[in-house]
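Lab manual, section 2.4: Encoding a predicted structure.

Procedure: take the sequence of the chain (263 residues), apply the prediction step described in section 2.3, and record the output as structure tokens. A sample record is shown.
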Amino acid sequence: MKTLLLLCVFACLSASSPGQTPSGQATPAPPSPAPSSGPASRPAPPPPDLATLQKKLNDFPQLAYYRDRNTQLAAPAASEKRVVFFGDSITEGWARSWNDFFAGKPYVGRGISGQTSEQMVLRFHQDVVDLKPAVVILLAGTNDVAENTGPMTPEMTLDDFRAMLEMARANNIKMVVCSILPAGDFWWHRGLEPAPKIRELNQQLKAWADSEHLVWVDYYTPMADQSGAMKSDLSPDGVHPNHAGYAIMAPLAEAGIAKALQK
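Recorded output:
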């Protein structure tokens, strides 16, 4: 029966998450080379095998990924305004160069490569609430559009954002909502034509954030070209920012955090 279930979900998981190894663990985001004339051409990953699917089903939200690191993280000091950056590979890759952008800041990275917003809902309490931050800065949606865990409608993504906001508010955590970064194609799931979908989803996310009086951080506008793809000098693969891309994002994030702390 379990084998049959694995085969049934094979189709929706066949577009394997970017940065996934055969063990199902997330690996570092693509490196950030010097700006080039355009995104690097990368082959699509092979479909996952049954062992990989089994691992995904056993820990769909990947709660094991940060569990040990969370227990080793001391509670914030009384005067500390901890901030959790919560997201996918874009956030995970950013955290590896924290000192280049946020040296000395009480910022914690909790991104997992390839994750969709539905997975993030399931780990929000463990990887955000339990860390007792003053602010969570949420960047999600790229992998929803990429269908990493199956097709998702904009309403499904918005429902996940609503669920995370409810948990944040119940625990006195301010939320900053970030726009999805532009993308003209996904190297691991080509042909989805994500540019107009991302543009539309960003419009809906901003309208929702405004209706909830949340701080909105717009990464999209300064990073998108006229077609809705990411500017070629800001990414090695058209999806993940390089150092120049993160350099654009950092002051926008800082401004959003400061505004949220004043609310």
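Check your result against the sample. The chain has a mean pLDDT of 87.
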